[in-house]
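Suppose a classmate hands you a notebook page containing two proteins, each written out with its sequence and a corresponding row of C-alpha cells. How would you begin to make sense of it? This section walks through that situation. The first entry is reproduced here exactly as it would appear on such a page.
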Amino acid sequence: MATSHELAFPRTKAICAPALAFLAVKKLGLHKVILVNQPDLTEAVNVYVPLLQAASGEEIITRGWRYDPPKALSDVFESVMGAVLVDSGYDYEKTAVVVEHIMEDILVPLSPSVRRDPVSDLVEWMASKGCTKVTFE
C-alpha cells in the first residue's frame, strides 16, 4: 500500500514544467503556433525544442530535473488544456479523456516507486539534519 507522499510524488512529476513543456512540444507542437514577441524567449524555445523532441516520456519522468525549458511552453500547454475544459462545457469526463490521451507518454512510466531527483534527495536529507536554508548556484 502506498503512502500519500508516494502517491503525490508521481503526480508532481507529471505536472512539472519539463513534463508539460515536453507534451506541448512533442504531442501538440504548440511551439510552432505560439506568438512570441521577445527575442530571448524565442531563442530559449528554439534551444529546447530539439531536446524535448528527442526525449521520451520516461526520460522526462525519471530525469526531468535535468531540463529547464522556458516556462512559456508549460504555460501554453496548461492554457490549451483549460480551453478544452471550457469548450467541453466544463465536462470533466470529456476533458479527462483528452488530457489522459495527450499525457499518455508521461503517465505510463509513473508509479509510486518512481525515482526521486538528486536535488529533492539532498534537500530532504539536509532538512532531516536541521538545515532550514538551502541555496543553489
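The notebook's second entry, a different protein, reads as follows.
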Amino acid sequence: MEIDSGLMPGLQARPKVLAVDDEDRNLRLMEAMLLPLGYEVDLALNGGEALEKVKQNPPDVILLDVMMPGMNGFEVARRLKQDNGTRIIPIIMVTALKEVEDRVKGLEAGADDFLTKPVDKMELKARVASSIKVKAYNDYMVNHQRLLEDEIAKRTAQLEKAYERVHLASLDTIHRLSRAAEYKDEHTGEHIARMSRYCVAIGQQLDLSSTVLDSILYAAPMHDIGKIGIPDRILLKPQRLTPQEWLVMKRHTIIGAQILQGSDVGFVRLAEVIALTHHERWDGKGYPHGLAGKDIPLVGRISAVADVFDALTSRRPYKEPISVDDSCAIILEGRGQRFDPEVVDAFFDARDRIMHIKDQLPDTTKSRLVEMVGLYDDYE
C-alpha cells in the first residue's frame, strides 16, 4: 500500500507508528504487518518505555496493549491524554478484552479506537490508516491555530505601536495648542507638561483608574486655555491688577470652559471641568463660582494643588523659584483652606514621583513677560 501524504496535510513522508506490548512476539508481528504498508515502526515493551519514546519522538499513532505488568494500557492512555503535547496522538487499544465495560473504561482513559486480538491484518491496515489521517488533520489544525495566534499577536503588537504613536502625537498636539493660551504670559511648555504629570501622580496616589489618569494627562494641559481670551493690557500688565482688572482676569476659567464645552470626547469634557474649577478653593473663597469642599470636582481639586506647586517652584521674570521645601510648606499651610486635605495628603505621599517629574522636566525657556500679579495673594 502506498500512503498518499498529499491527501493528509501535515503528514510525514513515512508516518510513524509506536507499538506497545509486553510480549516481544506480538511486537514483531505488528512490525511485520506495518512495515510493508510504508510505515516507520517503533516498539516499546512496557508503559514506562512507551511514555519515554513518545516524549522523545512523538509518533503519529500508538498501538497500545491493555494488559501489561506495572503500568497497564489504561494508565498509559490516561497520561498521554492529560499532556497537551501528546493528547492529539490517536491511541488504538489492542486487547483481548471483549466486555463492553472494558471498552468503556478504555474510552474514558482516552482510547480513540480498538483492535481485538488476534489482530486481523486488513482491520489493522484500515484502522491505522484512519487514525493516521485523524492525526494529520489534527496537526494541521494545531499548526493553523498557531499561525493564526502568531498573526494575531503580530497585528496586535502593530496596533499597540500605532496606538502609542497616536497617543504621543495627540499629547504633543495638546501641549502645543495649550501653549497658544500660555504664550502671551510666557509660561514655559515645561509647566504644561509638569503640571499634567503632577496631576497624574496625585491621582495615582488616590487610586484613580488608569483610564481616568490617562484622561487627566490629556486634559490638564488645557487648564489655562481661557487666557487666550484675556486682553493683553491685563494679561501682560507688569504691575498689580486693579480689582476691576482682576475680575476680567478671573474670567479665563469661564472662557476656557466655553472653548471646551460641547465635545463628545471624554478627555475634552474633563478638560472643560478642570479649566472651570482649578481656581476654586476648599473653603469656598475661590472662583469663578465660589464652590466649596467636595462640590468642587475632584479633578479641579487635584489641578489646584499641582498648578500652584509648579508655579511656586518655577522661575518667573519677577521672582526666583521658591525652594521645594518652602513651596511644600505653603501647600501644607493651605490644607483645609485653599486645598482639599485628602489631595494635599496624596501630594505629599507622591512627593518622590513629583520630584522625579520635576527633575525630568526642568525649566529651559526664559520668560520675557510677566505672569499675572496676584497669583500668590493668598500667601502674602
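A careful reader of the second entry would note: Residues 1-11, 365-380 have pLDDT under 50 and may be disordered.
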